[in-house]
Amino acid sequence: MGPRLTIDEKRKRMMEIFHESQEPYLLKELEKIGPKQKGIVSQTVKDVVQSLVDDSMCYCEKIGTSNYFWSFPSETAVKRQNKTKELEAEIGQLETKGRDLETSIAQAELGREQTEERKLLMEELADVEARWEAQNSELQQFKECDPALMALKKKQAAVAKEAANRWTDNIFIMQSWARDKFNMETENFNKYFDVPNDLDSV
């Protein structure tokens, strides 16, 4: 049995099902596909899909007597971009409000003991900071799941893999050259040049 998935991981994998196929599904179809393709426990599929619908990341429409669910990459990208802009604007407003409150608190401190006014300002500042943390955390989650960023990461991983395999091939060529030229066994070559004996392409 694989590691237990978090709700965010389940949501991400469910979105992959929609985007990879770009087809609408019945809930019972998703309950079969989820465990097989993405390791999502069938009993949790309904809640995962509903959470995506609630966040407007996928759609549900009743056709005849059945409910169909779907999400296309272009729709999600637009919604994600709009949500990101919305969060960034809210964070900017919270930062401005936080600075204003800090100024007000500093002014309230001048030549005074703890006052009711300062106490209220401190409580409001704490609330603003908590909201800023929550909004910033949500923004980071949206950016981590951004399709463009994921595509870039996949491309970077592919380039890194290609480079690693190229260097591995070069080492194999050097091993063969040393064996043919100097009758040096591969084990000795690895020992002299600190090459792992289990070196292989990735």
What's the short story on this structure?
The protein is mainly alpha-helical and 202 residues long. The protein has helices at 7-21, 27-38, 42-54, 73-109, 116-144, 147-182, 186-192; strands at 25-26, 59-63, 66-70. It has a 3-stranded antiparallel β-sheet.
Q: Helix count? A: 7
- Side-by-side strand order of the widest sheet: 1-3-2
* Fraction in beta strands: 5-15%
Uncertain residue segments: none
* Alpha-carbon Rg, integer: 28 Å
Estimated helix fraction: over 70%
Which overall shape is indicated by the principal axes computed on the Cα atoms? flat
Please write the string of helix (H) and strand (E) elements: HEHHEEHHHH
Biggest sheet, in brief?
3 strands, antiparallel
Tally the beta strands: 3
